[in-house]
Structure formats: C-alpha cells, structure tokens
Fold this protein.
Amino acid sequence: MKRQSILFVLLGVVVVIISVLFLFVREPEYTQVVSADNILTVEGLTREAQDLSIDVLGDYIYEVQPSTYSFIEPLGLTFDLSQAQFDFDVAVYKYNDDILMWEVASAPVNSPVSSIYLEQNNLGKYTIKEYADVESPDFVNSYDDILLMAPSSTIGYEIGLGFLAADGSVIRLLEKTQLGGCDGIVSHGSRVEMSQLERSARVYVGDVQESVEFLIVARWFVDDNGGCVDNAGLE
C-alpha cells in the first residue's frame, strides 16, 4: 500500500508539472513582421511572436530581433526589390558580430530582380549589397604574422579574411577561414581578444584584375589561467 501511495503522489506531481508547462509553453504560431519601409518581410512559426521585430538601420540595412534565439524551424525572409534601381548583381549579406565582417547569406542574383527569399534559423543584421566575385589571395606568411600577435594565454583562435568593398564595409571570404588551438584543438577560454592586419593584393574581381585591400582578423580565445600546457603549441 505504501508503494502505491508513493506512485500516486509521483503521478500527481507529473500531472501538475505537465499542466504548468501547458500554461507557460505556447504552441507555435504563424508570425509575420514587415519593416517600416515595406521592403523586408519576416514570417514563419515561432513561440516568441511578440518579440520579433525589424529595425531599419539605413537603405536596405535591417536588424531583425531576437538575434540570439534559435527558432524551431527556419523563418522566411523576403526582400522586396521591385522598386530598387540596382544595375549590378546583388546578394543578401548577414553581419557576423564575432569576426566583424559581412558574410554572403544568399546566392547572387542578376538585377533587375523583384525579390530575394532566404530561410534563417538565427536572425541578426542583414543588408542588400552588390555581389563581387573576388579571387581569394594567397598571402605569403600573413597568417603566420598574425599568429605572432596571439596573447600568451591563447588556447584557441579563429582567423577570418575579408576584402574592403566599395562602400567601406568588409566582406568575408569564408573559404579562407582558419581555426586552431593547442596542438590543433580549438578551445574556448574565459574571454576573447582581437587582432587585425591589413594587406593589399592584385586579384581578379570577376574577369578584371584589380588592386584590392584586405583585412585579416583574428579572434583569440584566452584562458586567464594560462595558455597551452605540456609544450603544446598553437596549430
């Protein structure tokens, strides 16, 4: 009898917990938010409909919040470009706050185009930019040079390479990303420090060779208790 009583009590607790969850956890619902300039529409299923917002930061520049929330399924972003006056190929770019560069988020399209659609699990800052097919340069010893700038207590790092666009923004070349750490193992420390180097090179932009300015950015994952141990090095 005592065991049955305990089981009944546990069952009651489970029922109460489930009831409370039903009160606080809402079923996914369809949400649609449109930017103030009627260019960007964000829509999909979300449990945080009241928090979804779009701030217009400039011409074709938007910040969609919440940026740190991962949705149960991708949200659709539609950019209405029917009134745009672009005379070049364009793409959607998303800003990477960690590496401080814009990253291409959609395939490039030929202008004029009526709209661009993409799906995203995580939101953030977006813009429409001219798409430039820039050749990835091979900088001799440049990554070696920036590795020499690593703090002594570094246990992991990420190096990104970007080129300076005509509007002054930095566009990341994802294929040039380098990750590393103690004996090649990437670890995240207690804080992050940054370093950067500037380089220039003549590379192909489309079919034309041009002089392009590049930026190399390193994120150092620093452990305040010390760096690599047992004679391990950053690889």
User: Anything to note?
Assistant: Residues 57 and 63 are 7 Å apart (CA to CA). The two ends are 64 Å apart (CA to CA). DSSP finds two helices and 14 strands in the chain.
